[in-house]
Amino acid sequence: MRLELNNFEKARERMVQEQLITRNIVEPLVLKAMNTVPRQMFVEEALRAQAHGDFPLPIGEGQTISQPYIVALMTQALQLKGHETVLEIGTGSGYQTAIIATICEKVYTVERIKPLLIRARRLFDQLHYLNIVCKVDDGTLGWPENGPYDGIIVTAAGPQVPEPLVAQLADPGIMVIPVGDRFSQELLVVSKNQGAIKREPIENVRFVSLIGNHGWRL
Ligand code: SAH
């Protein structure tokens, strides 16, 4: 068991060195979080040996845990310092949630598929992430009761930026979200500053579909 944990530690360090630092992930808080969260715990047992590879992996229900680089890139784009409240849409495995929760004050996360959320919530408890609140719902509607949010991260791709999410973004605030068609998208950084909304594409990506009221229909 001890030996196994050492192996994952090494895999994590290698992941940070070879996949992140070489691709311009430079923010110390992001690198530290990526070097801390046990990614192998967020995939099923049979896939643990591959958990730190440079690719996404299936997590059941037709969904995937994002490639480590994409998780780091999206987190870095949020420019978190530590005091923020963040809304995440698409909990999935809970890995991205745990990375953000390591850095900021509080994370609200919404997932539409109940069995995935139940599994993620169990992991949050087991690994003692005490600052994550989650629910099953259509995340394209946001979570208005707890907003506005300093950061919003959407880990599934829709045809446009959902209007409720723009409304629930604090000013100043940053949202990172993939937008495009079903097969390929641009990762957008949407920022709100003194009432003005700015959109900047930072990477070409391929995400699973954002399904809901302000996303794709099933
Ligand atoms: N961040 C996750 C990525 C999971 S894949 C991880 O690292 O594991 C994207 C997730 O978004 C899927 O679990 C999918 O069910 C969920 N999703 C899709 N549309 C959604 C919506 N409208 N509201 C909430 N979750 C949604």
Folded structure, characterized:
- This protein is of the alpha/beta class and 218 residues long.
- The chain is built from 6 helices and 9 strands, in the order ααββαβαβαββαβββ.
- The protein has a 7-stranded mixed sheet with strand order 5-4-3-6-7-8-9. A two-stranded antiparallel sheet has the order 1-2.
- Helix 2 packs across helix 4 (95-103).
- It is globular, with a radius of gyration of 16 Å.
- Bound molecules: S-adenosyl-L-homocysteine (SAH).
Summarize the structure.
By secondary structure, the protein is an alpha/beta fold. Helices cover 29% and strands 28% of the residues.
Biggest sheet overview: 7 strands, mixed
**Arithmetic mean pLDDT:** 97
Number of strands: 9
User: Could you name the CATH class?
Assistant: Alpha Beta
Named CATH architecture: 3-Layer(aba) Sandwich
Secondary structure tally, helices: 6
Head-to-tail CA distance between termini:
42 Å
CATH topology, by name, is: Rossmann fold
Q: What is the succession of H and E elements?
A: HHEEHEHEHEEHEEE
Count of the domains = 1
Structural class: alpha/beta
The portion of residues assigned to helices is 25-40%
Q: Any low-confidence stretches, pLDDT <50, length ≥5?
A: none
The unique ligands bound to this protein are:
S-adenosyl-L-homocysteine
Strand order of the largest sheet: 5-4-3-6-7-8-9
Provide the CATH superfamily: Vaccinia Virus protein VP39
Overall geometry comes to globular
**β-strand amount:** 25-35%
Tell me the Rg in angstroms.
16 Å
